[in-house]
What does this fold into?
Amino acid sequence: MEISEPTKVVFYVSRIFGLAPYVVKRMSNGQIVEIKRNVLLIIYSVCLVFCLAGLTYKGIFFDVTSKKPIRMKTATSKVVTILDVSVVVSACICGTLSGIWGLHFVRELNRRLIEADEILSLYVKECNRSLRQRRKGILMLGLVCFIITGALSLDIWVWYRIADKIKKENSNSSANVLGYFPFYCLYYILMMFHVLFAQAALGIGNRYRHLNVALYEMFPEFYRTPHIEISSISSINLDPEKNVSIDIDIRKCVANVTHGFQRKRNPTSKKIIEDLAEIHASLSYCIVLVSKTFGIALLAVLGSCLLHLVATSYFLMVELVGDKDAVFAWIQALWLFIHIFRFLLTIEPCHITNVESNRTITIISNLRRSCKDVELIESINMFWQQLVASNFSFTACGLCTIDRRIITSVCFPYVYVSSQTALKQIIFHFSVLRSNCHLFGNFNTI
It folds into this structure.
């Protein structure tokens, strides 16, 4: 996770939810000097997640053993609900443990990010993410909290509505709904983990973008038309004996006159390329550090997203062909949207970062093709070889690469097979129900 001045709001909120049991020592100018664990915060994080997990399973057991269960009315719904709850519990536990055990990776990540900001500040104005970047983090945090709070509130209202319908059969039905409140609290921890990972990935992507901007600004003659200052001309000399020196570049169709203005660079071009190559290599390793920090938790989160997509679709289909409760069907559709949103909240920051990283290859390719300086072309070729050799991307314990390709390579086949299985299960239930109806009908006739 990234811990800096623009991200401190997300950091402190994640510490409340037990995902960042760290204390930070800062200098007078706000620069971070040391990041270390805090024993009290570790105890708080572990107690919070395991107490919520234990209370969640206690609520499930209470619902199963009650006279009239609220959620687990059939054997299939019992299995699906237990799996649904278990993946959320496991993802929250893995997120908490990754924060406790990942201190070394967090320190190294923030050290590299600070070094990258210091070097980039020499070449790009306002490369240090300030108020605008902080607002983006707060906006993302607020949006996620608003969505999950609204969804949980509607879900609680729907289940209390169902509990009121069966109050005659089970007078204590409201207690069944109350037993799932710890499970709802775990959802806040899960969504906070999504925000924490997304901000870490986007932080690396922002620095890649600043690096690309530095290349554009420090070498503008290789990418766009140079700025030409045209002075006013009162008369034109048409004397054929006097020649005017005009250099025409046919490829760009640009006339570079002697009074044209070119941007002056204080550092040498070779030094710029070497610094930016060092930053790119460091940021590439930051991707590895983020993957190591959140690896197990990412695997659990992706698994929970996939399982929730199938389980929610199953409950939605059962409701549409069964009781046909419109309110319950709409709340299931809302949860389906939220699980898709969770999935995209994990994938899209990684995709954005990968796009910015790959854009550097395109820029350096243009430099190689256009540059004629022998001394500079050597540094550019070394940067090019580094870009080609380094192919780092976000992974979940090295099992799968996290980008948009995971949607077609993993999600679509998984969801298709699972939906077909769920559909067959629904058809089987209704065939059994129909056969029972025919059986009782024949018995009454006899």
In short: The chain has a mean pLDDT of 77. The beta strands are 22-26, 32-37, 247-249, 254-256.
